[in-house]
Each structure stands twice: as structure tokens, then as C-alpha cells.
Amino acid sequence: MERDKIEKVINKLHNIAETSNDDDFNLALYIYVRYGIFEFDNYICDNELEEINQVLKRYSTIFNEDINDEVSIILNDTEED
To answer: φ and ψ at 21, to 5 degrees?
Structure first.
């Protein structure tokens, strides 16, 4: 990996964060990292976005594993053990 490429991505994320409100940025970042653009475009509706955002607000970081469990229930994509 080239550090300068990573730095460019981080700077772009920083610029987006600076021009977006926290809720929008955190929700977009979570959805993109966890599910990707295809899932977002085709399977996540506005009501689910609102519910996911409410879950994210209850945690100090979007990387808390409990969020994934709650969001899976919202999206009805729980995997069978």
C-alpha cells in the first residue's frame, strides 16, 4: 500500500465529514462499509435508514459489534447459526 493513496482517501473522508452533519456522515459510512452501495441502492429503504440512524446514535462508535446485531434485525438479514 502506498501511504499517499491512503492519505488521499482519508482527506476525502475528512472533507465529507466537515461538510456533512454527523448523523448523515456516520450513517453513510456505516452503510457503505458494512453493506456497500449495491445493498443500499437496492435493499435499504428510507424507514430502515431512520431506524439504523437511531441505533447508531446510541453508541459512541459505529464499530461497536452490538450495532451490527441490531441493524441485522432491522434489515431482517440475520444469519442462522
So the answer is: -75, 160
pLDDT tens for the chain, 81 residues long, are 899 999 999 999 999 999 999 999 999 999 999 999 999 999 999 999 999 999 999 999 999 999 999 999 999 865 544
DSSP for 12-74, written as a single string: HHHHHHHHS-HHHHHHHHHHHHHTHHHHHHHH--HHHHHHHHHHHHTSS-TT-HHHHHHHHHH
C-alpha cell at 76: 431482517
CA distance 57 to 44: 18
Residue 31, burial from CB neighbour count under 10 angstroms (0-12, 13-18, 19+):
buried
